[in-house]
């Protein structure tokens, strides 16, 4: 039986990955900061799907937290076959409105943690001749918008570059780029969503289904939903300056629900 390790596993897309992979019969290692919530999620998944579920309480904004996940990924006696780097967050406000320490924390979670955990997981996968890494990015990766968009653009470029380097090894990598998805993301960041139309929202379970299908097909980039595929195709054709203005206007227009 294969094992999947999921960061940010107790809510949103991470929790949807946990449900789907447990349903598929995979054992799990759930990583998040909230120990109580981790244990509750683990007990529920183990009971419902009959799989083994480990928990690892770790804050990926700290070296100790990232190191704990690295250690688990390098444990050859308990190999991890699928890594889902889902942990992440948003900051409300434009550049200079967000404290520098919060920007640096975002870089730690979105960039350093992804680099280090991927680098810890891939050697064992390559040695075994199989494995998969899904790094959760965002459609924001394709639109200039401060630190968040920049970190997600890094995730996309890093993941696709490593996927090319590992072609033919049996290890697949994917950058998952969802659009607006119904999770706790905006609420945690203090962002209102009242101005976002109903058609723009994705379901987390659908995002996961699309991601895993694309991973099986060997696609290093997954953009769930036809509407967001069209959005990404469009923004790649528009001048960068126009994209920046549109993105800034959107960021300022968040309204309470």
UniProtKB/TrEMBL annotation:
GO terms for cellular component: membrane. GO terms for molecular function: oxidoreductase activity. CDD domains: SDR_c (cd05233). Keywords: Oxidoreductase. SUPFAM superfamilies: NAD(P)-binding Rossmann-fold domains. InterPro entries: NAD(P)-bd_dom_sf, SDR_fam. Belongs to the short-chain dehydrogenases/reductases (SDR) family. This is SDR family oxidoreductase. It comes from Kitasatospora camelliae.
């Amino acid at each position: 039986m294969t094992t999947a390790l999921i960061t940010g596993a107790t809510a949103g897309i991470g929790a949807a990955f946990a449900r789907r992979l447990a349903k598929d019969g995979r054992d799990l290692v759930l990583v998040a900061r909230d120990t109580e919530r981790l244990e509750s999620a683990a007990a529920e998944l183990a009971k419902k799907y009959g799989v083994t579920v480990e928990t690892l309480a770790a804050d990926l904004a700290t070296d100790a937290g990232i190191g704990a996940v690295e250690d688990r990924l390098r444990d050859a006696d308990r190999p991890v076959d699928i890594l889902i780097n889902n942990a992440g967050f948003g900051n409300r406000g434009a550049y200079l409105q967000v404290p520098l320490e919060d920007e640096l924390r975002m870089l730690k979670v979105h960039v350093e943690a992804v680099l280090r955990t991927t680098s810890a997981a891939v050697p064992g996968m390559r040695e075994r001749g199989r494995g998969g890494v899904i790094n959760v990015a965002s459609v924001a990766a394709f639109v200039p918008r401060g630190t968040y968009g920049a970190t997600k653009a890094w995730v996309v470029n890093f993941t696709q570059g490593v996927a090319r380097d590992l072609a033919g090894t049996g290890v697949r990598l994917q950058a998952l780029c969802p659009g607006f998805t119904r999770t706790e993301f905006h609420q945690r960041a203090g962002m209102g969503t009242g101005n976002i139309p109903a058609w723009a929202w994705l379901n987390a379970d659908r995002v996961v289904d699309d991601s895993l299908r694309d991973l099986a097909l060997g696609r290093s980039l997954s953009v769930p939903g036809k509407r967001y595929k069209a959005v990404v195709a469009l923004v790649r054709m528009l001048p960068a300056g126009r994209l920046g203005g549109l993105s800034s206007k959107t960021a300022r227009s968040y309204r309470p629900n």
